[in-house]
Fold this protein.
Amino acid sequence: MSTVFIALQTNEETRPIIEAIEIDNPEAVVNREPAMVKINAPGRLVIRRETIEEQLGRSFDMQELNINLITLSGNVVEDEDSLTLTWGN
Amino acid sequence: MHIDLRTVSIQPLRQTFDHLARRFGDKPSSRYQEGSYDIQPEENLHYRPTWDPEQELYDASITKIVMRDWYALKDPRQFYYSTYTLARARQQENTEANFNFVETRGLADMLSDDLRSSALNLLVPLRHAAWGANLNNTFICGYGYSTVFTQPCMYHAMDNLGSAQYLSRIGLLLGGTEALEEGKVAWMEGDAWQALRRYTEDCMAVRDPFELFVAQNVALDGLLYPLVYGRIVDDRFAANGGSAVAMLTQFMSDWFEETRKWVDAVMKVAAAESEQNREQLQAWTTVWRDRAAAALLPVIEQVLADQADEVMAEQLIAFKARLEKTGVVV
């Protein structure tokens, strides 16, 4: 199965997002590079707003993700509540 | 000359403090965790306080609630000094803007005399109740155990002081200094307020910090805020041309919605810890809820008159539903 990934800058704002991704995607592998966190997952990776909000302790707009986003790979399905990366076909 | 650039990955010797690594695993910690966990002084306290030799200086057994780990009572808002002050500073700016809007456009003068006097009669004496809530939360902070539990209590106490100040400003805006004096007289002597004053003062004599938390933050605030600011100010006053008053109490409505999450989370975790805790919390909540409902009924009767019973009954159902989600059945 192909790997999807998302890479975020390492800072205080992305820490709860990364924790949320770890919770929602048990198969994801988190690689902490200098100043960057790259998360690989086999086939599918989902980022849920609700989980991020629980980690963050406040409401979260999925658009805020883009501020610290470096790159991603996979087909993106995005709405207000989640962002999913897949290699679906 | 040839320059070869390459990335060198340096593994930090420590990701975080040792006590946080023991708790959460060896990974970078959040500021909230650094500023809250395992900060409560526990060791090397050789002497008992001279003012109460029955207890330790910081004593988890002052309350009947028993927790294996008091740090389980996490604040879902994750407030530590910085996030708390930033959040409140934003709300303060917002409230200032609301007051400014009402003052510059003369909206206070446009209120009918009826509405103005019922707003003053209802809101101004509540500043004394808010001050009581400040004292009570300061007590919980002083005698409670573990920073994750006591820290938000101190913030809660400061918020209550802020609410009291906003209520004073509303009194000054709508009725001048006389309104504050009349409010004090109503609080000390008015028939409608004596039950609530007794409740507030009895709370000051409760020595169990967790019982006080239930009495003040769960039972009283859980009924007072939705009834006064929700049902009366936001619904009743606003429908009768008093939207200006609702603008001035916006902070209280927003604040209740926000702090409710924390209060519920504390109840949920404490009740889930053991059956004894759950029973104790249920007993406290039932007793204090009944007293709070009885104390608030004459207060809301001032505005709602014969509908007060019905509104109170609806609110009690909502309160029950809210607490059931935390596992406390009342």
Notes: Chain A has one domain: 3-86. Chain A touches chain B at residues 12, 15-16, 33-34, 54, 56-58 (CB under 8 Å).
